[in-house]
Structure formats: C-alpha cells, structure tokens
C-alpha cells in the first residue's frame, strides 16, 4: 500500500507519499481500506517530531479515518468484511489501509458518505469526553469554545446547542463568527478585537462560563480561570499558546473551579473504547437525525497531505480538512 511517511521531521515538505508494507490486524483488530482521513493539529506536531505515536501504533500520521473492513482479526464478533465504518486511531490514517482495534470503530451515520464520516471520530470523541464526560455540561449552562470555527470547535458548538446550553465562541474573523452563529453559537467574540473575559462577563451578567473548552493552553490559562463561573470547569485539550503559565490559585479556590487536561491518543484501549461507545450512544443519534453534522472545509488527495498541513497552519479554514485516498 501507499502511506504518508515522515523520513525526517520538518515542515510540510517532510511528508512523503511512499510505498510501505500493508498492516496486519492482530487479535481484536480489523483491517480497514481507507476511503478518507482527516487532518488534526496533532498531526502537525508529529510531522515536526514533537508528538510521537504511542508504542505499538502505526508510525504514519492520521488520528481518524473512514472506509470498508477488508479483514477481521481473531476475536472480533461485531464487525464483518464489507462493513462501512469510521474509526478513532492512534495513528495510520494517512494511508490506504490501517489496522484498528474493534472498540474504536463506529458505523457510518445515516445520510452521510464515507468521506463525510471521516470528519467525525476525533472531534466527536474529543468533545464528548471533555465537555460532557469530564466537565459535565448541563442544559442551561454557558459553554465557551475557543477556536469555534475549527473542526473541534464546530462540533462543540453543535453539541452544546443540542443539549440546551448557551454557547459562546472565540474566533479571529467575522466570517468565522458568522458561521459559528449559524451552528447555534449565541455569544460571538473576536479575539483579535475583544477581551473574551470582559465579553463573557457582560453576556452572562457577571456569572462567567460554566465550561470552557480550550485549545490554547498556557496563553489562555489565567484569563480562562478569570472567565469561569463559580463551580466552573476548564478543559484544556491543546497547547497552541504554549505549555507553561502562572496560575492564580486564589482565584481558582474562590470559584471552586476545576482545571483538567486530557488527550486521546495515548489512552489505554479500554478507555478509548468507552469513549467511542458513549459517542455512539449519545452523539450518533443527533447525527442520524440531522441535528448535528460534520463541517468540512475542503477535500484534498491524500498524496497532497503537505498542502493540507499548510492549510491548517494558515488557520484560514472552517471545519475539517479531509484527505481522500486513491
């Protein structure tokens, strides 16, 4: 098969479409012939040599894909050759085939094709696990989503709205904020022109945000804590704004607030399977009914993964960038 390899870490040009051995599914895994994968910021870090795959994972980038099962390993009972699936991966999505633990498979939602389904696993699992399983967002609460027009952001807006929360977003352009409003966001904050702490306080009558989903890390740590409501929950899922920052513990104590930080890739198989099962139970019905949808910015041939990485680094996209396998 062919896959995107990284012979040496570096810029987008470090991504090389090359012939590699086919993966072989082990016990509890299936082999998926990939129709499409999606690009995530973690892939950019891997390309730069800053985020290596966990032990035993595929060395190729790609944390989600969709395709058809072409081989079933020993012990797999719920899936069969020919099934159309999408999958949460520890790596290997930028390839024509990938071996996947059966617990990380999801059926293709009603009304979607395989390419559209490739935009779902990573964002749905990230948002559901952080906003709902860890931070316990409830109806009537305020959810602040940083980077509201990103792949994760567009999913968080829709799921927050679907459960009856009031959704606030930050984004850097009017076009992106307008798109978030179409998805259901009610509080729109241009981070280039406005102070999001002040805007959240104004919009909530001084109460603050009950849950904040943050992709920035260090840069936003202090203002995020200041923007939290009493008993608020801050979920950190990225470090685009750095990895070290000061934290005012007094503010955190006074608000009785919680700060959590999680990632999906290195979790044990059982934890990933539990998240995928929760997504199938709670999110898939919303997608099947059309209340929630994948947001896709563009599709590119998988061999042009370098261009897809340039698109993400430029931050001009809205939603997911897909890579379509030949």
If you had to describe this structure to a student in words, what would you say it looks like?
With 326 residues, the chain is an alpha/beta fold. The protein is globular, with a radius of gyration of 19 Å. The longest helix is centred in the middle third of the chain and has 14 residues, at 121-134. The model has no long low-confidence stretch (mean pLDDT 97). Helix 5 (174-183) links the parallel strand 9 and strand 10 (187-190). The protein has helices spanning 41-47, 114-117, 121-134, 151-162, 174-183, 196-203, 218-227, 249-255, 269-282, 284-288, 305-314; strands at 2-5, 16-19, 29-38, 64-72, 84-88, 97-101, 105-107, 142-146, 166-171, 187-190, 209-214, 228-236, 258-261, 296-301, 320-324. The chain is built from 11 helices and 15 strands. Helix 6 (196-203) runs parallel beside helix 7 (218-227). The strands form 3 sheets. Strands 3, 4, 5, 6, 7, 14 and 15 form a 7-stranded mixed beta sheet that branches. A 6-stranded parallel beta sheet has the order 10-9-8-11-12-13, with helices on both faces. Strands 1-2 form a two-stranded antiparallel ribbon.
């Amino acid at each position: 098969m062919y896959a995107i390899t990284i012979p040496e870490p570096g810029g987008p040009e470090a991504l090389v479409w090359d012939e590699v051995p086919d993966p072989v599914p082990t016990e509890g895994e299936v082999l998926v012939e990939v129709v499409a994968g999606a690009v995530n910021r973690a892939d950019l870090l891997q390309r730069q040599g800053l985020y290596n795959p966990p032990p035993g994972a595929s060395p190729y980038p790609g944390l989600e894909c969709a395709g058809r099962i072409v081989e079933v390993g020993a012990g797999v009972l719920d899936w069969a050759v020919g099934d159309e699936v999408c999958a949460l991966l520890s790596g290997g999505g930028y390839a024509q085939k990938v071996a996947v633990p059966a617990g990380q498979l999801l059926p293709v939602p009603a009304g979607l094709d395989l390419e559209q389904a490739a935009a779902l696993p990573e964002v749905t699992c990230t948002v559901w696990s952080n906003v709902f399983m860890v931070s316990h967002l409830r109806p009537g609460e305020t959810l602040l989503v940083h980077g509201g027009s990103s792949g994760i952001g567009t999913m968080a807006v829709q799921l927050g709205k679907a459960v009856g929360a009031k959704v606030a977003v930050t984004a850097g352009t009017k076009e992106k904020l307008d798109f978030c409003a179409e998805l259901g966001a009610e509080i729109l904050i241009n981070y280039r022109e406005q102070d999001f702490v002040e805007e959240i306080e104004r919009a909530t009558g001084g109460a603050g945000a009950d849950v904040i989903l943050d992709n920035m890390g260090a840069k936003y740590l202090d203002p995020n804590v200041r923007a939290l409501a009493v008993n608020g929950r801050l979920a950190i899922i990225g470090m685009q704004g750095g990895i070290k920052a000061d934290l005012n513990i007094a503010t955190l104590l006074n608000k009785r607030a919680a700060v959590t930080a999680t990632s999906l890739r290195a979790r044990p198989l059982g934890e990933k399977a539990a998240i995928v099962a929760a997504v199938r139970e709670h999110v898939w019905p919303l997608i099947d009914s059309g209340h929630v949808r994948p947001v896709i910015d563009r599709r590119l041939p998988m061999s042009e993964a370098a261009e897809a990485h340039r698109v993400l680094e430029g931050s001009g996209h809205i939603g997911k960038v897909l890579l379509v396998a030949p």
